[in-house]
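Section 5: illustrative case.
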């Protein structure tokens, strides 16, 4: 089973249809345990590569830089040109430093230098802003990012988001176009069958402007795997439920109704609910490549098999209608 490649928006770049997320690499829990240790991280990267995966997603804040360092060590034994590597900048990386976060020119320049050093590479294929920084003028941001492209340290620019904000991307790109600077050509929003916030103007903007969409959390922090049931106690391994507000966000009647549809389709196509939830993205005309993650190689193998799931037009439409989008009540 090899995963296919798809075009990344209007960049001209081809990427794996399933990106591999490394946010757990080196991440320490409140109890002081590593979610993914070095040996497991290497095994996961090996498994992803073995199935044709070439699109690796990380960030400077993942494992406080450990994720990038381990990826760099892994890439050192391979041809760097075979892989598309993306990282992100925004979150605090220096304690007690007022300039140790955000998107100021000072922070961006320092962090990019450190990212490249940890990854052991001369360039990033894709640099995302991890969130928006309203304290940094859009003109300063786009001019700084364009400089990274012009000096060859970054190939393409992206914006990772939590809440829909197509107007911010449009405004930044308008400034970039006005001055002949590099625009954002990729977005990384949260999107899944439980979180439908980007439906509407956000996806319409991306579609109209041929901007690549690389969603994070395609399984809704594990909710769409089917391991959570109505009116039942939380599973012992439900680590996602430790996230503040997780239960209120996901364990709702509306979301369980959507999960019922996912599980019904999974039975029809002889797949797991997780595979169907990701296959929905693979069949979605506005989605480029969802980001998959895993704790074990077996789990990653299962997630990657989403690429083999064939949904009929009727099944896709049932999944799409499983939960109302943000504007459906206005129609």
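Designed sequence:
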């Amino acid at each position: 089973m090899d995963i296919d490649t798809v075009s990344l928006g209007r960049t001209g770049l081809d990427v794996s249809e399933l990106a591999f997320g490394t946010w757990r690499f080196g991440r320490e829990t409140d109890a002081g345990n590593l979610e993914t240790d070095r040996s497991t991280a290497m095994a996961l990267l090996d498994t992803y590569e073995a199935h044709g995966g070439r699109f690796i997603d990380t960030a400077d804040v993942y494992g406080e830089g450990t994720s990038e360092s381990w990826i760099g060590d892994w890439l050192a034994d391979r041809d760097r040109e075979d892989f598309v590597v993306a990282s992100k900048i925004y979150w605090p990386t220096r304690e007690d430093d007022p300039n140790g976060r955000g998107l100021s020119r000072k922070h961006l320049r320092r962090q990019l230098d450190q990212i490249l050093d940890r990854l052991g590479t001369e360039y990033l294929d894709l640099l995302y802003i991890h969130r928006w920084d309203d304290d940094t003028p859009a003109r300063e941001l786009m001019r700084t990012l364009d400089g990274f492209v012009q000096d060859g340290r970054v190939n393409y620019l992206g914006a990772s988001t939590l809440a829909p904000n197509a107007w911010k991307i449009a405004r930044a790109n308008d400034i970039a176009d006005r001055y002949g600077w590099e625009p954002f050509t990729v977005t990384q929003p949260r999107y899944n069958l439980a979180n439908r916030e980007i439906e509407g103007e956000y996806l319409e903007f991306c579609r109209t402007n041929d901007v690549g969409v690389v969603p994070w959390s395609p399984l809704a922090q594990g909710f769409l795997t089917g391991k959570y049931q109505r009116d039942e106690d939380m599973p012992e391994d439900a680590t996602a439920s430790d996230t503040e507000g997780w239960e209120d966000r996901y364990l709702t009647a509306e979301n369980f109704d959507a999960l019922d549809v996912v599980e019904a389709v999974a039975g029809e196509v002889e797949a797991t609910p997780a595979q169907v939830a990701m296959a929905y993205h693979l069949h979605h005309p506005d989605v480029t490549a969802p980001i998959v993650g895993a704790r074990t190689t077996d789990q990653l193998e299962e997630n990657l098999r989403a690429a083999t799931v064939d949904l009929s037009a009727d099944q896709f439409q049932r999944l799409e209608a499983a939960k109302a989008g943000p504007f459906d009540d206005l129609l």
